[in-house]
Amino acid sequence: MTDQLLAMQDVCVAVDASIRAAVEKMDANCLGVVFVTDKGRLLGVLSDGDFRRAVLSKAADLDASVSTIMNGSPSTLSVGAGAEETFFTLAAGLEEGKKVFPRIDAEGFIRDFSYREHWGLLPVAEPELTGSEAAYVLQCVEQNWISSSGPFVSRFEQDFAAFTQLSHPVAVSNGTVALTLALQALQLGPGAEVIVPSVTFAATANAVVAAGGVPVLSDVDPVTWGLSPALVEPLISERTRAVIPVHLYGSPCDIPGLRELADARDLLLVEDCAEAIGTTSGAGHVGGLSDAATFSFFGNKTLTTGEGGMVFFRDSGTEQRARQLRDHGMSHSRKYWHEVIGYNYRLTNLQAAIGVAQVERADSLVSRKRHIGHLCEAGIAQIPGLTMMPVSPFGESSYWLVPVLIAPDLASHRDMLMELLASDGIQTRVTFPALHTMPAFAPYPRAADLPVSDDIARRGLCLPNTPRMSDESVAYIMTCLASNMERITALARGEG
After folding, report:
1. Which Gene3D superfamilies match (predicted)?
2. Alpha-carbon span 118 to 381, nearest angstrom
3. pLDDT grade for 118, boundaries at 50, 70 and 90
4. Which end of the chain is more exposed for a tag (fewer CB within 10 A), N or C?
């Protein structure tokens, strides 16, 4: 974010200016840097470090041109480069100790600048590994239990089951596998249709295909951004076997209503809780009303094992079937005797060790993310042109991320907003593009109209939410959002 107290003339000097003039301007702007330009085109940068080195080498004649000691290959941010490139360019520069970054256009002219003083980079999500993770992993190494055998796997299953109050857990290698295994263990059957939301990570539909089924893409509810009975019922056919609701970004959807519909139509209900660790619905954690509930422990999730997943079932028979399928279809009683076709879906003891340490702090991690989510709700309510994802009436969100919608008349400027935030050191990401718009899912059936999915995909973006963020960091994000929204609003109105 460009400091409102500093204008471009406060940070730029002409190439024919003296070193003395450049240092005086550097001292006045308190940034420790000036940009050397030729009629607005960036030629180089002079930092206080460059000046000190020149003095020590006796190369600093204060009346000489600043070009004699400037850095002619500075780190820059490119206007129009996109949010991801901007964020990671900033990250690389910060690792090298740089604090100020000019933003240049395709012709090399400086259009803006960004600098980091107090907050550093704010990734959209990151693991929090400050508990016993390292100690438990070291224990695995010292005891030579590094593969899928070892005490931490079953301990992780038991501990996470205790946290969620769900039963019959099976730990697996990732969240996608958890969904696939759930459908296989529930004996979905080839060609069976499974209704899934169009706004979700693709793994929800990919798992259906991997299990031999056919995903049917539904629109989502405008409040929960998930499936609802009213949306699902018209899509049920004689081939429908299951429904997979997703608690998108940690917000609970209408599971009681979907459970009632599934029972009435003799359908399986499989909850995709990949983003919903800590999300509650009714009296308990999400997942308790379904035939299977799956979770992800990818590196950006609230609890992580790097890669990992878990699936819960309603009965021990389905759990045992899943355990056999997870381990190459081998007999539980006869080693290397394969009774059914199975795969290697196992979680390693190393990964589970991290998971055990994570679950030990699950309550505090979820509580912190909820607190950040509530701070963001209060802040975004004060920013014209932005609205938060609605609060679900079906439970309490765990705020995996903080999804917002930009006003319809500003939607074409969403990517610009993300790029501006990236230059402020704030990483964002778009909400999931709708599956029904992607080539991979073109062959599969879908609802005749999916307006809410299209709207979320067009206007949505996600703000950071990590337990490591301070309240001050949240305030900084809100300040940057407000400033940059003013900027793109002016551009949209032709005022900028």
Report:
1. Aspartate Aminotransferase, domain 1 (3.90.1150.10), CBS-domain (3.10.580.10), Type I PLP-dependent aspartate aminotransferase-like (Major domain) (3.40.640.10)
2. 25
3. very low
4. C
> β-pairing, 193-197 with 169-172?
unpaired
- Which residue, of 337, 360, 383, is where some domain finishes? 360
Residue 13 tokens, joined? 């000097």
Residue 320: which H helix or E strand, with range? Answer: helix 316-326
One domain for residues 353 and 414: no
Most confident of the ranges 21-25, 237-241, 422-426: 237-241
What's the CA angle centered on 217, arms 213 and 220, to 5 degrees? 135
Identify the CA nearest to 231 among candidates 254, 249, 208.
254
- Rounded to whole angstroms, how far apart are CA atoms 201 and 298? 13
Whether 341 and 377 share a structural domain: no
101 vs 114: CA distance, rounded Å = 5
pLDDT (0 to 100) of residue 95: 66
Phi and psi angles of residue 113, each rounded to the nearest 5 degrees, phi first: -150, 155
Q: Which residues contact 27 (CB under 8 A, 6 or more apart)?
A: none
CA 236 → CA 194, 197, 205, 215, 244, distances in Å?
Answer: 9, 14, 16, 12, 13
- Residues 286 and 317 occupy one common structural domain: yes
What is the rounded distance in angstroms from the CA atom of residue 203 to the CA atom of residue 218? 15
Whether residues 258 and 150 fall in one domain: yes
What single letter denotes the amino acid at residue 91? A
CATH code: domain of residue 29: 3.10.580.10
> Where would I find the beta strands (DSSP E) of 19-142?
33-38, 41-47, 77-78, 100-104, 110-115
Asked which of 80, 115, 150 is the last residue of a domain, the reply is 115
Please report the sign of the dihedral spanned by the C-alpha atoms of residue 208, residue 213, residue 216, residue 222. Answer: negative
Domain that holds residue 338: 133-360
Assigned token pair, 160: 């996470």
Quote the number of domains for the chain.
3
Say whether both 335 and 391 belong to one domain: no
Angle at 450 between CA 446 and CA 451, to 5 degrees: 170
CA–CA separation, 362 vs 340, rounded Å? 37
> What's the pTM value of the predicted model, to 2 decimals?
0.83
**387 pLDDT above the threshold of 60:** yes
Tell me whether strands 268-272 and 309-313 are parallel, antiparallel or unpaired: unpaired
Residue 44 identity (one-letter amino acid): G
Structure token digits, residue 66: 């600043």
pLDDT score of 116: 58
**Is residue 252 included in any domain, yes or no?**
yes
Going by pLDDT thresholds of 50, 70 and 90, the confidence category of residue 217 is very high
Residues found in the chain = 496
The CATH number covering residue 325 comes to 3.40.640.10
Q: What is the mean pLDDT of the chain?
A: 93
Both tokens assigned to 127: 């693991």
